[in-house]
């Protein structure tokens, strides 16, 4: 047995009513995945390190990102049950101002894993982030959803969202005059507007790159049934685990950074006790025209008039 095949034990085992519902490992993704049996996992939802030199990253190279995925994705295919899903949430690698879309590299790595079939490329858009003076400010990341072959689980009715025009009716043909939409709501589509986790977000922890629980929750509800095993090999603060437990699924995950494991244990434990802080999956708040922050100051109005000839 060498270092990459060494079997590791869970660091935290979390129970609910005498049954194990979550196992958290303080280890590398590859060692964690090696503990999982063939075809034992229903869904993987993860956001890997972007190799941007964050405090938890050993690399700043997009080549390392690609090579890591060439090793990890075959393991993902091994542990997934037939018809299970893997969802990879990534953003952009930026070095010396040059942008590499990381989902392109995940897709390239997945091309040599024939069992993984791409079903959707979801755009996750959010209203806030850094303002770039040299290019358009980044306001989206992506999620690649792969299934291990077909048929696969897709519970659309569990993730429908309200229609813009629920009262819309067919205007011609046999169904003329009848309501045209689905009474349970519409398909959420492949562009998801969900606020990211910034300072005032109710889910914010010390982790610098959390995704909101609403992102994995939608995937878990749509792509698994209650009791399913959901896995996140780069779990960070445990957002996927919180989403899994809060929705009656089981969870296993790993992270190499001890302090994030501690945060994940607390959050997943809170989810078991139905005490986890979770922002409901609802559209971002729109400011009212009467809010003071919605109003243009006199100073800016005059500056805009001078620059553009109008203050709108
Ligand atoms: C983008 S963050 C994940 C954040 C997570 N989705 C959340 O909501 O908190 C990536 C995580 O991967 C962890 N990590 C980095 N390299 C790893 C490796 N080889 N194996 C496991 N975890 C790793 C980092 O410590 C970091 O917490």
Q: CATH fold name, please? A: Rossmann fold
Number of domains: 1
* Widest sheet, order of strands: 1-2-11-10-3-4-8-7-9
Which CATH class is shown? Alpha Beta
Bound molecules: S-adenosylmethionine
| Helix-strand sequence | EEHEHEEEHEEEHEHEHH
Give a count of the beta strands, DSSP E runs of length 2 or more.
11
Helix content: 10-25%
Give me the CATH superfamily. Answer: Vaccinia Virus protein VP39
User: How is the main sheet built?
Assistant: 9 strands, mixed
Q: Indicate the CATH architecture.
A: 3-Layer(aba) Sandwich
Mean pLDDT: 94
Distance between the termini: 68 Å
Low-confidence stretches: none
Q: How would you describe the oligomerization state of the chains in this entry?
A: single chain
Structural class assignment: alpha/beta
Number of helices, where a helix is a run of at least 4 consecutive DSSP H or I residues: 7
Outline of this structure?
With 312 residues, the chain is an alpha/beta fold. It has 7 helices and 11 strands. Helix 2 packs across helix 3 (102-110), helix 4 (214-223) packs across helix 5 and helix 5 packs parallel to helix 6.
Task: Describe the 3D structure.
There is one protein chain. With 312 residues, the protein is an alpha/beta fold. It has one domain: Vaccinia Virus protein VP39 (Rossmann fold, 3-Layer(aba) Sandwich), CATH 3.40.50.150. It has seven helices and eleven strands. The chain has helices spanning 29-34, 62-79, 102-110, 214-223, 239-246, 258-272, 298-308, and strands spanning 12-16, 19-26, 41-46, 80-90, 92-95, 98-101, 116-125, 140-148, 191-193, 229-232, 250-255. The protein has a nine-stranded mixed β-sheet with strand order 1-2-11-10-3-4-8-7-9, sandwiched between helices. A two-stranded antiparallel ribbon has the order 5-6. A hairpin with a 2-residue loop joins strand 5 and strand 6 (98-101). Helix 2 crosses helix 3. The chain is globular. The model has no long low-confidence stretch (mean pLDDT 94). Bound molecules: S-adenosylmethionine (SAM). Residues 28-29, 47, 49, 56, 207, 209-211, 233-234, 236-237, 239, 254-257, 260 line the site of S-adenosylmethionine. S-adenosylmethionine binds at residues 28-29, 47, 49, 56, 207, 209-211, 233-234, 236-237, 239, 254-257, 260.
């Amino acid at each position: 047995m060498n270092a990459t095949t060494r079997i590791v034990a869970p660091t935290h085992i979390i129970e609910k009513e005498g049954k194990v519902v979550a196992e958290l490992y303080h280890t590398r993704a590859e060692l964690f995945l090696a503990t999982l049996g063939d075809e034992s996992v229903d869904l993987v939802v993860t956001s890997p390190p972007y190799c941007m030199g964050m405090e938890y990253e050993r690399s700043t190279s997009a080549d390392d990102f690609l090579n890591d995925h060439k090793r990890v994705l075959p393991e993902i295919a091994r542990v997934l049950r037939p018809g299970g899903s893997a969802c990879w949430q990534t953003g952009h690698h930026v070095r010396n101002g040059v942008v590499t879309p990381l989902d392109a590299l995940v897709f390239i790595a997945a091309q040599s894993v024939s069992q993984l079939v791409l079903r959707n490329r979801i755009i996750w858009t959010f209203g806030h982030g850094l303002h770039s003076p040299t290019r358009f400010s980044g306001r989206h990341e992506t999620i690649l959803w792969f299934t291990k072959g077909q048929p696969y689980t897709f519970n659309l009715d569990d993730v429908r969202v309200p229609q813009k025009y629920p009262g819309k009716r067919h205007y011609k043909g046999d169904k003329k005059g009848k309501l045209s939409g689905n009474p349970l709501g519409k398909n959420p589509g492949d562009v998801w507007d969900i606020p990211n986790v910034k300072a005032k977000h109710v889910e914010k922890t010390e982790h610098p790159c959390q995704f909101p629980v609403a992102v994995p929750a939608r995937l878990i509800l749509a792509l698994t049934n209650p009791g399913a095993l959901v896995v996140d090999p780069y779990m960070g603060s445990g957002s996927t685990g919180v989403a899994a437990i809060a929705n009656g699924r089981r969870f296993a995950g790993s992270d190499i950074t001890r302090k994030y494991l501690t945060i994940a244990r607390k959050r997943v434990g809170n989810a078991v006790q139905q005490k986890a802080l979770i922002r409901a999956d609802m559209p971002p708040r729109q400011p009212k025209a009467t809010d003071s922050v919605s109003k243009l100051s006199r100073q800016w109005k005059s500056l805009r008039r001078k620059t553009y000839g109008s203050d709108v």
